[in-house]
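Dear H.,

Thanks for agreeing to be a second pair of eyes. The structure we're designing against is below in C-alpha cell form, covering all 255 positions.
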C-alpha cells in the first residue's frame, strides 16, 4: 500500500487555466477537489486557477493516500523547507517537482558575465538544495524521488546522495520531446533580485532557455500544455502518473 507526499511548485499542483468567474462551479467535473485562486485578469472577469489536480488526482484515483503540499512560484529551497512541518517518514514515497534554481536568488544578488558563469550559479543553487534535501529526507525509508519539471537536475549531481533518487528524470523526456540534449528547463531572473548585474552573454543564455521552453510548449507540443500554454495539463500528468505507478509498483492504501 502506498502513502505519497508530493512537493513542488505550480507544476506539482496540476493543470492551470484562466477561467470565467461565472463558471467556477464547472471545476468540480474537472477533477478539482479544491480550488486555488490566483490573480485575475485586469477586467476582473477571469481568474487564474488550478483546473485539475494532475498527479495528485490520478494517484488518488489509483487508491494511493496522497498529500500534496506544492505551492506555485516558490523556490526549491522553500519547497524542501515546507516538508519540515510534515512527518516525512510517514510516507512511502515523496515526489519532488524540481523548479528553476534561480528562484533561490530571490532577495539576493545575481552577478554573471558569461554563460558559464550563469550555469555555475544555477548548479551551485541546485547543489545547495540537494544537500538540504538529503538531510530532510534521511528518515524517509525511500528518500525523495525527483521529478524533472520546470528544471531537471543533472542525474550525475544526485548520485552522491543516499536519500535522493530519480522518480522521473525529465518530464519532457518522458513525453518524448524533440529538444536539445543539454536542455534542462527555462531559467528566469527572479523579479525581486536585489542586485542584478548580468552581461550580454549571460542574458542571451537565459533568453535561449526561455525560447526553447516556449517553443516546446506552444509550437511543438501544445497538446500537453493547453489550456494555459505554460503548465503540463491533465493529459501530461496522467502519463506521469502511469509511469510512476508502474515504476514503483504503487498500490492502493488500505487501513
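And this is the sequence the design step returned. I haven't edited it by hand at all.
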Amino acid at each position: 500500500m502506498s502513502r505519497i507526499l508530493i512537493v513542488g511548485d505550480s507544476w506539482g499542483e496540476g493543470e492551470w487555466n484562466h477561467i470565467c468567474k461565472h463558471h467556477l462551479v464547472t471545476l468540480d467535473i474537472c477533477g478539482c477537489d479544491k480550488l486555488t485562486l490566483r490573480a485575475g485578469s485586469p477586467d476582473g472577469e477571469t481568474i487564474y486557477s488550478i483546473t485539475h489536480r494532475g498527479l495528485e488526482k490520478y494517484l488518488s484515483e489509483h487508491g494511493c493516500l496522497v498529500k500534496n503540499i506544492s505551492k506555485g512560484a516558490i523556490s526549491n529551497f522553500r519547497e524542501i523547507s515546507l516538508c519540515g512541518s510534515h512527518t516525512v517518514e510517514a510516507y512511502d514515497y515523496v515526489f519532488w517537482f524540481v523548479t528553476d534554481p534561480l528562484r533561490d536568488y530571490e532577495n539576493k544578488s545575481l552577478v554573471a558575465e558569461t554563460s558559464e558563469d550563469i550555469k555555475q550559479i544555477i548548479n551551485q543553487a541546485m547543489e545547495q538544495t540537494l544537500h538540504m534535501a538529503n538531510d530532510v529526507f534521511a528518515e524517509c525509508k525511500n528518500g525523495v524521488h525527483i521529478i524533472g519539471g520546470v528544471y531537471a537536475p543533472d542525474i550525475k549531481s544526485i548520485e552522491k546522495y543516499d536519500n535522493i533518487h530519480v522518480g522521473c528524470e525529465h518530464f519532457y523526456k518522458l513525453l518524448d520531446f524533440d529538444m536539445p540534449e543539454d536542455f534542462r528547463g527555462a531559467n528566469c531572473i527572479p523579479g525581486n533580485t536585489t542586485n542584478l548585474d548580468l552581461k550580454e552573454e549571460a542574458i542571451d543564455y537565459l533568453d535561449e532557455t526561455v525560447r526553447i521552453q516556449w517553443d516546446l510548449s506552444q509550437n511543438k507540443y501544445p497538446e500537453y500544455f493547453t489550456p494555459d500554454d505554460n503548465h503540463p495539463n491533465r493529459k501530461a500528468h496522467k502519463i506521469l502518473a502511469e509511469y510512476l505507478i508502474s515504476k514503483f509498483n504503487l498500490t492502493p492504501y488500505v487501513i
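Two observations from my side: The radius of gyration is 18 Å. Residues 3-13+52-248 form a domain with the Rossmann fold fold (CATH 3.40.50.1110).

Warmly,
E.
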